[in-house]
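Render this sequence as a predicted structure.
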Amino acid sequence: MTNESELSAAKQEHLPDSSELKEETTAAPTESKGRNTLLIRTISALVMVIFAGAAIFLGGWTFGGVAALISVGLVHEYCSLAKAKGFNPNVILCTVCSLAMIVVGCSDLKIAVIGWLSMAIMAWCLFCSALDNVFNHQERKSYILDSAINCFAVLYCGFLPSLLCYLRNVNMFLVVFLVVICIATDMGGYFFGKAIGGPKLSPLSPGKTWAGFWGGLLCSIACLYGLLYWNVSAGIFMKYNVYFWLIMGVGCCLVGQIGDLFESSLKRDAGCKDSGTIIPGHGGVLDRFDSYLFASLFAYMWLTFCLSFPALDSLFSF
């Protein structure tokens, strides 16, 4: 009897506690879910890279068609966020004006003409928003904000993607450079943030940390020098020197992260986790291209700034 009681007591000592069993059973599905999410995210990213690479290589209206599809998705998701707040944007007006912006960006016109046409589209959007306020008598939360949302949708979802079309018309390497920098920033931010953690970058996006910010910057600089080596060895776009590309690369990285946080603020205000579900593992179109939109704005501004001032242009040229 003594031996049997001792054996049963020993077995009970080695039996795991119910709380420990619960922790183990909950930890296993979480780890499995994390691996599955990363796998889906990676597969979706590879598919997007293949299609985007083909569009960038072909250029012209093929690239413009892809930009137009992205613009339509951006408008739909942005207006959905606005509707979640109780506003009533004119989706058709925003879509038509945004597509007009893409057409202007794809046109092989001088930069001054592109600027004037873009301003004309914005003026038309404002005028049509005024007509919508006057003749559309449905109940609204705010006439002022509905008009502002329409105009901002065209700027955010139409004008910014059109800048990518303009940059592609100037040289393919500009778009390749921008896309690679944004991808490196996203990947560096994701993996450094997961591995190191630490203080949060902003309350707007709890998942982003300062470790991810610096990791994204380091990865973008590393890819920047790889791109420059490829550029010089292949003789693709030899006009500007390394300092021009360093400023553009770091600027696209930093401004792209601001664009990411800005989109997070829109989702947070609308009470949405993702802007959509069309891209598996990534969320919506706005979730995926938020950093590219702001990075394209910086790249466009920096390039046109250098081209507008001959002294600055010669300073950064070979």
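Summary. The chain has two domains: 48-170, 171-318. Residues 171-318 form one domain.
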